[in-house]
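Hello Y.,

Per our agreement to keep a running log of every chain we model this quarter, I'm adding this entry. I've kept the format consistent with earlier entries: sequence first, then predicted structure.
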Amino acid sequence: MKKGQNRNKAETYLRKIRDNDRALKSKRDELDALRYKASGAGAIRYDKDHVQTSPQDYLSLAMDDIIRIEKQIEEKEAILEELKGKAYTVVRQIPQTDHRIIIEWYYLNGLSMIATADKMSIAERTAYYLRDDALDSFGKVMGK
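Predicted structure for the entry above:
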């Protein structure tokens, strides 16, 4: 497999992890907001422009939503755990330490490139070049 293909394959896989991680965080925020709303803080509007809903009906609907979102979170956590597990298996096989570090911090831990560069004590631009090399290494190990 060519170098560019390795990089694309690796980036596609690792982006899937970052995207799933962001989606999971979003679902958790949605669940927290729903729990807050269901706890009574602004759960029912009593002004004349809105239809009155009984607290019992609203709470029942909110609980259904909470349960649905909790199941979605569990499913997303399982998918993310599997993706990360496979990625860590590949990362451990990469010989270059700096490549392993940048993949782990940027893709698996979700740090920004600026934060990753700061933690590595390198310039941000250098981190981007290093990331490209790390993706090649990741893709090469993945393709074995």
